[in-house]
Amino acid sequence: MNTDQSLPTTQTKHSLTIDWEDVKPKSSSQGQLMFRRFRKHKLAVAGLVVLCLFYAVAVFNGFVATSDPAKRNSSYVYAPPTLPRFIDHEGNFHFRPFVYGLKSRIDPDTWERVYEIDHEKRHSLSLFVRGDKYRILGVFESDLHLFGTADGAPLFLLGTDSLGRDMYSRIVAGTSISLTIGLIGVFLSLVLGLLIGGLSGLVGGTTDLVIQRIIEILASIPQIPFWMALSATVPASWSPVQTYFAITIVLSLLSWTRVARVVRGKFLALREADFVMAAYAMGAGNWWVIIRHLIPNFLSYVLVTVTLTIPGMILGETSLSFLGIGLKPPAISWGILLQQAQNMRTIALRPWLLLPGVFVVIAVLAFNFVGDGLRDAADPYTSNRF
Amino acid sequence: MTSKLLEICGLKKYFPIRRGLLRRPAGYIRAVDDVSFFVRQGETLGVVGESGCGKTTMARCVLRLIEPTEGSISYWNRAGEQIILNRLNRQELKETRRDIQIVFQDPFSSLDPRMSVFDIISEPLRLHRIGDHRAQAERVAELLELVGLKAYHMDLYPHEFSGGQRQRIGIARALALNPRLVVCDEPVSALDVSVQAQVINLLRDLQEQMGLTYMFIAHDLSVVEHISDRVMVMYLGKVVEIASSEALYLTPKHPYTEALLMAVPIPDPRRKVKRLPLEGAVPDPSNPPGGCSFHTRCPYSTKVCRTSEPVLMELEGEPDRFVACHHASEITLTGWAERLSRG
After folding, report:
1. Do A209 and B23 touch (CB under 8 A)?
2. Together in a domain, A219 and A106
3. Do residue A183 and residue A146 come from a single domain?
4. Which range has the worst mean pLDDT, A68-72, A276-280, B54-58, B225-229?
5. Same domain (yes/no): A151, A188
6. What is the pTM assigned to this prediction?
7. For residue range B5-27, what is the model confidence (pLDDT) as tens digits?
8. Could you tell me where the DSSP H helices lie in A14-158?
9. Is A170 part of the contact surface with chain B (CB cutoff 8 Å)?
10. How far is B88 from chain A (nearest CA, A)?
11. How far apart are CA A358 and CA A281, in angstroms?
12. Judgement on whether residues A339 and A363 belong to the same structural domain of the protein
């Protein structure tokens, strides 16, 4: 063995001193963590996207609709949906989507009006066309529509109803009432729930006992008869706006109980937490504890409950209007639109009148997905996957 | 002998057991039942006893987190005036609370998860409106260094720390107002053994630096013995023995103290340990046994123990040593003496 050979040495060019200020860990608050967990929940994110779209439509419904939702077309009563197509009846491809016109005739046996596609009339669709006038949020007047037929011919994407009104435009118009009634109703029940639940959790004792029994009684009342009784008291002479708010209040009278229960439960649990005890030991008063500790800690749970309460409200409005005791025409909501689908004949012959129901289902599912996602994000240890 | 800082006289806390629709009290849990003791300025008083013997309830009464049913809690402030804590109004109480702080057992529940470390430690400063934001940040940095953390930790959130670090944050918060008395409610029992020692040493160092007085609650005698000057043993809401930590360890006078000492594990797997088994369970505190409350489990009990209740008395010839046992001066506690003699 060659002993002359020098031993290998490890040469370090850089001294290994760590500046701890540089490796300072990045911190994230509970809110940021919650957002990160929410983003991992694919269905919830999809639900959120759908909801954003729906609410955008609710605000800009006149722009998204193709015609005035109240406009009647006596020559197109119960017209079936005409979906846009790219390939014509001869098999030629058209770069621009188009619809065929409809021609109607009376069936000699049943005396019913039957529609047939008129291959002679081809109306191509284009974006940003001028059409019926509308107002956005009741203020800005415009006649620009997202899309429509280039030549101004009537377009019935989802068919028409008994008066020949365009169902697509009516569903779009119904979005604003059907989706906002949930929001406003939930806001009311949030206020009621926070106040009553907070009182119950904070004061405790007999107050708590009485409030809890009231909640139990309210929760055991069958919803539909209760709502029916209350909406029956709304005077028929009220304007659509007044009726709208009356129905909102009716809906929130039952749904605040869920929020109240969550708030009370959290109040009771957090009041015993050591960090609340520590705050009292430092000399904090009740308000300090409520504002600095209790509310920030249960807000996310309230948010979850609220998100999961909205679909109930949307369904409530739909049920009431469907039964004819909620909002009344000429107001347009999904429930009112569904009134036309109350008999077998309609469902058998004119299934497109059920389409508003599909939108109700989509909106309710989206809210539920978002609510589930928020719940898992707010409380990763009680995930609800089964 | 230094002066008293805290004196508790005849403290009782009864929790009503409510039953039925009208929630009438059907009985009472005697969590703390006629407890009297004092804490001297600058010392550490250890409080031991098994779970449910009223240690935590007693501590919370001292801090007035719960209102005692009966009894008085006196505190001598910096000016040497005696203050009866449970007769203060809200404003006076808030002032006095600057002097008495608490460190909690559970490092997870004791820090608000929504607050950053800065918010947590500066909360007492903000509550008492001490200093502006910058002064508070400086104080928080100082406190963090004091408890062995780094100043930059103030931007982080509790979930980013280990149990031991969280407990350090809890200690920093308790020290923010420069208190005189810190009640440590089982501050290490939720921690790993290796971390326990670190936290206890930190508490000792802080005591030296800041001249703190501790009331140190634990259910583990070995921990308490290490840090305390005097130890108070509680059983079923009552004090059974108070002695200097050395005297208690060498010559326990109450049979329950002996049983506790025998239960301390010895970290040597080859060593066979004779235990003094305590028979039965802790009696129901809503229905304590008559006479001496320990007589149901006491291996030395006699007739008198079943009929009359012993009072906590200073032992003859041994000042500063209180025992509540009829036979304190007669019996020799054989089990522990034997174990000590074997080394």
Report:
1. yes
2. no
3. no
4. A68-72
5. no
6. 0.76
7. 999 988 888 888 877 666 677 78
8. 30-40, 42-59, 61-64
9. no
10. 13
11. 56
12. yes
Per-residue pLDDT at B333: 67
Whose tokens are 């009552």? That residue is B238
Length of chain B: 343
d(C-alpha B292, C-alpha B301), whole Å: 9
Chain A interface includes B60 (CB < 8 A)? yes
At residue A199 the predicted structure's pLDDT band, cuts being 50, 70 and 90, is confident
SS3 B245: helix
DSSP code per residue over A261-287: HHHHHHHHHHHTSHHHHHHHHHT--HH
CATH code for position A317 = 1.10.3720.10
Residue indicated by tokens 């930190």 = B202
Shared-domain flag, residues A207 and A126? no
Does A310 score more than 90 pLDDT?
no
Which of residues 204 through 223 in chain A touch B, CB cutoff 8 A?
Answer: 205-206, 209
pLDDT of A59 reads 86
Give me the domain span that covers residue A261: 173-378
Instruction: Tell if the CB–CB gap between A281 and B177 is shorter than 8 Å.
Output: no
Is residue B65 within 8 angstroms of chain A, CB to CB? yes
Helix (H) or strand (E) holding B299: none
Q: Which residues of B touch A297 (CB under 8 A)?
A: 112-114
Q: Which residues of chain B have pLDDT under 50?
A: none
Tokens 């957002």 identify what position? A35
Q: How many domains does chain A have?
A: 2
- Amino acid residing at B308: S
Alpha carbons within 13 A on the beta-carbon side of B85: 30
Q: How many CA atoms lie within 13 A of B7 on its CB side?
A: 10
Residues A287 and A366 in one domain: yes
The whole-number pLDDT of residue A333 equals: 85
A367 contacts: CB under 8 Å, gap ≥ 6: A47, A51, A182, A307, A308, A310, A311, A314
| Contact between chains at B102 and A278 (C-beta distance less than 8 A) | yes
Q: Select the residue from A27, A28, A210 to test the B interface by mutation, using most B Cβ atoms within 10 A.
A: A27
Specify the pLDDT at position A21: 54
Measured distance CA(B171)–CA(B328) in Å, rounded: 38
Nearest to A26 by CA among B170, B153, B114, B172: B153
Does residue A16 carry a pLDDT above 70?
no
N residues, chain A: 386
3-state helix, strand, coil in chain B (%, to 5): 35, 25, 45
A116 within a domain of the structure (yes/no) = yes
Q: What does pLDDT average to over chain A?
A: 80
Q: Do A266 and A154 share a structural domain?
A: no
What ipTM goes with this model? 0.87
Domain-embedded: residue A64: no
State how far residue A9 is from chain B, nearest Cα, in angstroms: 37
Give the residue from A117, A149, A165 where a domain finishes: A165
List B28's β-bridge partners, or say none: B16
Residue at token pair 């805290």: B6
Check: CB of residue B62 under 8 Å from CB of residue B183.
yes
Mean pLDDT for the stretch of residues A128-146:
79
> CA end-to-end span of chain A, whole Å?
70
Q: Which of A98, A132, A165 is the last residue in one of the domains?
A: A165
- What is the token pair recorded at A179? 């989706």
Report d(CA B302, CA B309) in Å as an integer.
Answer: 12
The verdict on a CB contact (< 8 Å) between B157 and A282 is no
Does residue A235 sit in the same domain as residue A153?
A: no
Which segments within chain B are labelled E, that is strand? 4-19, 24-40, 44-48, 70-76, 82-84, 100-103, 181-185, 213-217, 230-235, 238-244, 313-314, 322-323
Whether A25 is covered by a domain: the verdict is no
Which among B245, B279, B282 has a CA at the least distance from the CA of B49?
Answer: B282
The mean per-residue pLDDT over the stretch A320-324 comes to: 82
Residue A34 covered by a domain: no
B38 part of contact set with chain A, CB < 8 Å: no
For chain A, say whether B111 makes contact (Cβ under 8 Å): yes
CB B156 within 8 A of CB A27: yes
How buried is residue B247: exposed, middle or buried, by Cβ count under 10 Å (0-12/13-18/19+)?
A: middle
